Automatic annotation (TrEMBL):
<dbReference type="GO" id="GO:0008171">
    <property type="term" value="F:O-methyltransferase activity"/>
</dbReference>
<keyword id="KW-0489">Methyltransferase</keyword>
<dbReference type="GO" id="GO:0032259">
    <property type="term" value="P:methylation"/>
</dbReference>
<dbReference type="InterPro" id="IPR029063">
    <property type="entry name" value="SAM-dependent_MTases_sf"/>
</dbReference>
<dbReference type="InterPro" id="IPR050362">
    <property type="entry name" value="Cation-dep_OMT"/>
</dbReference>
<protein>
    <submittedName>
        <fullName>Uncharacterized protein</fullName>
    </submittedName>
</protein>
<dbReference type="Pfam" id="PF01596">
    <property type="entry name" value="Methyltransf_3"/>
</dbReference>
<dbReference type="GO" id="GO:0008757">
    <property type="term" value="F:S-adenosylmethionine-dependent methyltransferase activity"/>
</dbReference>
<keyword id="KW-0808">Transferase</keyword>
<dbReference type="InterPro" id="IPR002935">
    <property type="entry name" value="SAM_O-MeTrfase"/>
</dbReference>
<comment type="similarity">
    <text>Belongs to the class I-like SAM-binding methyltransferase superfamily. Cation-dependent O-methyltransferase family.</text>
</comment>
<keyword id="KW-0949">S-adenosyl-L-methionine</keyword>
Length: 217
């Protein structure tokens, strides 16, 4: 997170910056109890995607890294009834936490989960000739594969479609070269890769832990 949990400014945003559906709140409360809760997107980030998806008239979405499905649920609320989210995750256990909430919200018919390695699932979508057909792709998985996820996503996203990549500022540590780790190296390499990519237009937002938005030219 870019802002500490006790930051009065961020507390204000979390309280007054958006509305959260009661079922999303229940899943958020359940997610917060999980020992791996830091893997989840923040509520303000989910609200941002809920605002964004109708603006780009999204109907076909890929989520790379589902965890408990908090973001999945938020996006499903924002999509029309005939939309589809393809959720990719390696853990059935994590995904099963969200399933009852998707069902309670009556959005489970919009969600298609594929359990397995995300790169292989993306390759299958490419092999199924789904190139240039998705409106929005959210990448929030292992950072070592960010460039690989991004390159495959560029094949699947339509012209004018948006790819969102999470954690690209990594608690603000990306700018401090004295801090090194395998994860930080992967994120810095990814950020440079995007910056130098003439195929896209992009912006980095200080939402949650840093969100990069990429539009395919």
């Amino acid at each position: 997170m870019l802002f500490p949990s006790d930051c009065s400014f961020y507390k204000y945003v979390l309280k007054n910056g958006y509305r959260i559906h009661p079922i999303s709140q229940k899943l958020l409360d359940e997610t917060i109890k999980h020992p791996m809760r830091k893997m989840a997107a923040s509520a303000d980030e989910v609200a941002f995607f809920q605002f964004l998806l109708p603006l780009i008239q999204a109907k076909k979405v890929i989520e790379i890294g589902v965890f408990t499905g908090l973001t999945t649920l938020g996006m499903a609320f924002a999509l029309p009834d005939d939309a589809k989210i393809v959720g990719l995750d390696v853990s059935e256990e994590y995904v099963n936490i969200g399933r009852p909430f998707w069902k309670e919200a009556n959005v489970d018919h919009k969600i298609d989960i594929k359990i397995g390695l995300a790169l292989e699932s993306l390759d299958q979508l490419i092999a199924n000739n789904e190139l240039d057909s998705y409106d929005f792709i959210f990448i929030d998985a292992d950072k070592s594969n960010y460039i690989n996820y991004y390159e495959k996503s560029l094949q699947l996203i339509r012209k004018g479609g948006v790819i969102a990549i999470d954690n690209t500022l990594w608690s603000g540590q990306v700018g401090d070269e004295s801090i090194t780790s395998t994860t930080l190296t992967s994120i810095r390499e990814f950020n440079n890769h995007v910056k130098d990519d003439s195929r896209i237009t992009f912006v980095v937002l200080t939402v949650c832990d840093g969100v990069t938005l990429v539009k395919k030219n």
